[in-house]
Amino acid sequence: MKEIRNSSVILAIDDNPTNLKLLDRLLKAKGYRHVHLLSDSREVVTTFLDLQPDLILLDINMPHFDGFEVMDALFALKRKLMPPIIVISAQQGLESTLTALQKGARDYVTKPFEKNELLMRVQNLLDAHLAHKMLDNQTQVLEQMVEARTRELHSTRLSVVQRLGMAAEYKDEETGNHILRMSHMCKFLAQKLGWSDYECELMLHASPMHDIGKIGIPDSVLLKPGTLDAEQWEVMKTHAQIGGELLGGDTSDLMIMARNIALCHHEKWDGSGYPNGLKQEAIPIEGRIAAIADVFDALTSVRPYKKAWSTAAAIDYIKEQSGHHFEPKLVDIFVQHIDEINHIKNQFQD
After folding, report:
1. What's the pTM value of the predicted model, to 2 decimals?
2. Which of 41, 99, 112, 270 is the most buried if burial means most Cβ atoms within 10 Å?
3. Of 160, 266, 256, whose CA–CA distance to 202 is shortest?
């Protein structure tokens, strides 16, 4: 600790050069190697920011800015870890001492001072400050480790979500690049709703999970060419509930959003959707966004059982379903930005 203490930076501020020289000789004789002297109080803030001192010795009676004003200026910088200040002044009396301590000084020494007493006060305050610095550095290291671990965990979750999306895509031969187009449309709509960058990225990575529940649908139903009969359709509809169950139980923002999308992307604004017949705002907003993007891309894509609709025909259908299948506000945004939506669709063609 002694070696670290002696390497500390000490800033002495006094308009009297004789006082500064005395402090310089005294501190250096004790082994302190980095003592900086300042006689012009107007230069305190600049010098402080440049040196980043570990301790400040400060006079009170100085021209331009007195010691109290200097402390006001230094504490106005709002440093996370302010170095201790020892006021050394010829002013004696309780009022000056209390004012200095109230403004942030850690100690008050009157001139003329006893050298060994001052050196002990310097040593004690430096030791305490250095201990605080070490603790703060350890805290920063721990915070960085936690942040890195959090990023790693988010990356792992994202990788799991992406691989599950690929698994669903392989199971359903009709998807092609559907999940790419649909997820980027979802992100675009979220941006137009004013979501934050973080929320939009969640939407981009969570929306590919919308049909993950199809993993649990028998191939005889999922891969059947042509139209499903009533019984098969009921089986197919269970994919939303299955998706919600597959993605449930995780408290991360990503997985919560992915679950909501998987469970709710077939709910309808008027309450006639499935699996739970949710209505209007009871449907999570991410589910409402996914619904319109999913339907538009499905309508305008080729399927073994149908030709691709034109953009105009698909938009007409979406407008007709405003207030029924889709939230009117989202329909308005979607129609208003159809050129950008089409750009996304063309960017990820099969």
Report:
1. 0.58
2. 41
3. 256
